[in-house]
Amino acid sequence: MNLILWGIVLLGIYVQQSVSQKVQCYSAFSLSTGKCGDLLGEAEKRDCCMNPNYGYMNADGKCMYCGPAAWTEWSSWGECSVSCTEGVTQRRRSCYGIGTCLDSANLGTVQTKPCVKKQCCPVEGGWSEWGGWQPCSVTCEKGIKKRQRTCTNPVPQCGGSCRGEQEEIASCITEVICPTHGGWSSWGSWGPCQSTCIDEGHNTQKELRKRTCTNPTPSTAPPGRYCEGFDTDTRPCSGLPFCPIDGNWGPWSGSTPCSVTCGLGRQTQRRVCNSPSPKHGGRECRGEEQKTGVCSTDIDCPVHGMWSEWSEWGRCKKPSTRDITCKNREGNRRRERECVGRKHEGNFCTGDIVEHGNCYDIDGCRMEGVLSEWSEWIYCKPACGPGSAQTRERKCVPDISDYRSKDRSMFSGVPKVNCKDLKTETERRPCNNVPECKDEDD
Predict the structure, then answer these.
(1) Distances from the Cα of 66 to the Cαs of 48, 152, 156, 264, 323, in angstroms?
(2) pLDDT, position 325
(3) How many Cα neighbours within 13 Å face the side chain of 330?
(4) Burial of 389 per CB tally in 10 Å (0-12, 13-18, 19+)
């Protein structure tokens, strides 16, 4: 890094550290949803991000991740954009954290592919003529009668249906008067006892309540049945409750130790509702049983290293004095990656930093060309909006049929391929019912 660029970096760090920025700090951040959880409280942004697993709310009300930039897993494929015939389905991923996520394969944040939920669309049917009316539902006074029809004219296709009701209901009158049978009214209130509560004692008095046969009153012509049962009910007053005692809080306890060993955590104080405790239905203590506050360890939390992407394979080299260029003999090559982002005694990356592989050196070799197999259909591009389509291609590639291995990833270098009249062929097919593009912040 040259001196000018290093100076700019130092100036940026100085300005960032010199400006006090209070944020709402959270001790949990979900890489799958991008949401903050478990609010700690207000703190300096730098103090909050001493722990790379924490998150904070920015000025726009968006949750930000304190850790290094990382992609989420791809979401599950969504619902097909239409319920019948061909549509598209989409899946998404997001980048959270400090910095920029690597995307060397240019996969982006949205992928779209065709889908068919149902090969055909529903066709509605038609109703038959109404059937005859069924008998009246009662034998006296007013009731109902029904008639029905079927969805068979024509029969619906591909999951369709008929609009409207399958059954029709109408009133019917028998011109016969029904008897009215008596019904009990609701019980009246219990009569009074001498007191409303007792202090750890008992009471042997009785209380009484009544009801009447007036809900409804039985008819006389034609005669209805009188209510069955008793119109009076009693019970002892021994069920009176004990008189209530309201609860009151005891003193606050001392604060617990800070919940973390690095970054920000929380401390808790508790109190108990036991001075006195509530009894016999008395009111519970009002207010909170515990209170929490933010605590700082002033120690940065470890940031674990992450592997960079593998470098390109190096030149294919001969393992001995025998020449391998343009020969059916295997050589050796290597590629490397770096463990980046490790800070504050975080863990080193696990795995090898260097990978070796076998190879065939075809750099500058004169080779006959052949057409490759068709590639897989790529995802719909653009991923949303009009004009989206899938493509696949096949192209002229070196003929490797004489080599022991047919794995093209083992071949190293740029050969001189005689493609003659073999031209790259491309197929394109449209993606149907692709949803409109929308703002990612929506």
Answers:
(1) 8, 64, 58, 12, 53
(2) 93
(3) 12
(4) middle
Transcribe 372-438 into DSSP letters. PPPPPPPPPBSSSSTT-EEEEEE-EEE--TTSS---GGGEES--EEE-TT---EEEEEEPPSPPPP-
- Kindly state the tokens that stand for 313: 């394979």
Q: Residue 206 gets which letter from DSSP?
A: E
- Residues 398-437: tens digit of each pLDDT: 999 999 999 999 999 999 999 988 999 999 999 999 999 8
List the one residue out of 113, 101, 60, 155 whose CA is nearest residue 390.
113
pTM above 0.85, yes or no: no
| Cα–Cα distance for residue pair 51/41, rounded to 1 Å | 15
Q: Are 384 and 110 in contact (CB under 8 A)?
A: yes
Type of residue at 347: N
Residue 255 pLDDT more than 60? Answer: yes
pLDDT per residue over 368-400, tens digit each? 999 999 999 999 999 999 999 999 999 999 999
Amino acid at residue number 321: T
Q: How far apart are CA 207 and CA 399, in angstroms?
A: 105
